[in-house]
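Example record for the data management plan.
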Amino acid sequence: MNGPGGNERAALTLLCTAVFLDAMDLSLMGVALPAVGRDLSLSEGTLQWLVSGYAVTYGGFLLLGGRVADLLGRRRMFLLSLAVFAGASLAGGLLSEGWLLVVTRVVKGLAAALTAPAALSLITTTFTEGAGRNRALGVYALAGATGYSGGLVASGLLTEVSWRLVFFVPVPIALLVLLLAPRVLPKDGPPPAEARRFDVAGAATVTAGVLLLVYALTETSGGAGVLAALFLIAFVAVERRQRLPLVPLRVFRSRALATANLAAVAWACATIGWQFAAVLHLQQVQGYGALSTGLGIVPMGLAIVVTARFAGRPIDRWGLGRTAAVGMLVQAAGILLFLRADAEADYVSVLLPALLVHGVGNGLSFPSLNIAAVGALPDEQQGLASGLITSSVQIGAGIGVAVLASLLATGGPGPDGYRLAFLAAGGFSLLGAALAHFGLRARTTPTEARAAG
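Corresponding structural encoding:
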């Protein structure tokens, strides 16, 4: 296919709609959490699992999702996982038990982990390598970013009517994709020989380990912490013995790869954790409604998009390590500026500067870490590199929300809890800056410079 025809454009639209839903679902819960908590009398510990349960399951099973799609068929896996996603969304909107809501979020995270790699591989097999595929992948990436930012705004609009709409709205969109996709997506061919084995044990042990770690951080449970350590040790043992491991451990001999993924965990702990705490602060301390909270966050989203659009220039001039470090220092400054926000804080003079500064730092650091991660491995391992950095972000999101929720509970309902949470989020961002500065190259390679452009 030299150029995208009607079927290719339709397929790309449907696949991007699915990744838009996956990304939007992570942020949709943000503004709705206080309303869910009030209506169902849920603790902040339970509320954070509505975010962490989705993010950690998504991150833990993402790498396995690509192998499953190869084995069972990309189109078949895409349709099946999207149907599960829609069913879990519908169930979440109908339920009123906190733990059952968490279960639906975990199921949706698993479904998203299977949908995303199937959609990405469908794009790479539908579009011929070259400019057409690059444009398609750019649209795919933009759909994910737009979904996350749009989810924050949509969450406010929907919650103003009913928080249950946050669960219901993805359902008709997913059903429309399911109706149209069989007509335009290419049929599945025979799976490659190497796809006949896939590492379920690796995905299960790493996901169980991270979920237990999040639980231990939230509930301050020593027993859960010990179990988490045992599962993560088991994951390493499994990967060392697997002929086709989920994550070949030898790739972490690359200093750039290991650093980029560790810094991405810290980045997500900071920014996703901070957003969780900041949304609660706006509504519970400053008295913002759901709609005004969603609209108030819009400038941050715009700052992220505009800065990321031009991030290639500082990357080309300063290099990946320096750009990522500067970005996370700026992001930390935006987070720590929220320490000025009390119950009477003015939006224009106090909150808006913090949101804009955070957005600029976010837009500089995230592209730099992604480019560093995929640039650390050769072309034949780009799928693994992309999966690792996405998993790191999702797992970091789950851990960051858990840590900040625990600090909010420790500090009590007043400003002390939020102060602790904001300080911790700023600390995560500073840690990421240090990792990027000392662990990533100061200058880009030619391959990375092209990627930055």
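Summary line stored alongside the record: The CA atoms of residues 300 and 359 lie 5 Å apart.
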